[in-house]
Amino acid sequence: SAAIAAALMVARQQFGLPFALLEIGSSCGLNLNLGCHEYDLGGVAAGVTGSPVKIAPAWSGGNPPPASIEIVTARGTDLNPLNASDPHMRDRLLSYVWADQPHRARRLEAALALALRHPPRVDHADAVTWLSARLEDVQPAGQCRVVFHSMVLQYLTERDQHAVASTIRHAGARASADRPLAWISFEWTALRDQVELRLTCWPGGQTRVLATCHPYGEWIDWRL
Questions:
Q1: Would you list the domain boundaries of the chain?
Q2: CA-CA to 19 of 20 to 30 Å: which in 4, 5, 31, 187?
């Protein structure tokens, strides 16, 4: 979630508004709690000081802006949402962490424990249908709506990938200064040679490549 948090800091600097998060491919929704984590992003502190989930990726390049991460609502979807309160599911998720990466296992354990105290809202629905409906919901003035996804597009058909992008851009065309939209993408490039963190903001629709990243977030090379 460090890369997503850094992108949110850029969006906060641009719009100065709190966030309403919408995530596709949420799995058990741990990233929906990213506002409850503590971050060290190239020496820039962010998030909640003293959080049990502390994330400090190896950092190179410049620094993200020292902006706050204020989240008003967070909601996600997955075709097969996982239940973080199920002990068997927690054990299964931990089993996916390589044995020589105990720091990742400890961080995942802390994030799962946090999810028990702050259960994320993850709907059972396909990305295209769900996102189309959510982006038609009334957006309160004074909030920046954020659509984000990390390592998800590779699991969607090409048709659904285009539908997701079209749905977001259509919503972006309706965005305004007091109801902006941000799209954060943490995905492989088309050549699958690197993972890019991209941010597109409306009004305007400008896309920026903020960073290249390790697929699991172990390091971030900031490009902004």
A1: 2-82+123-222
A2: 187
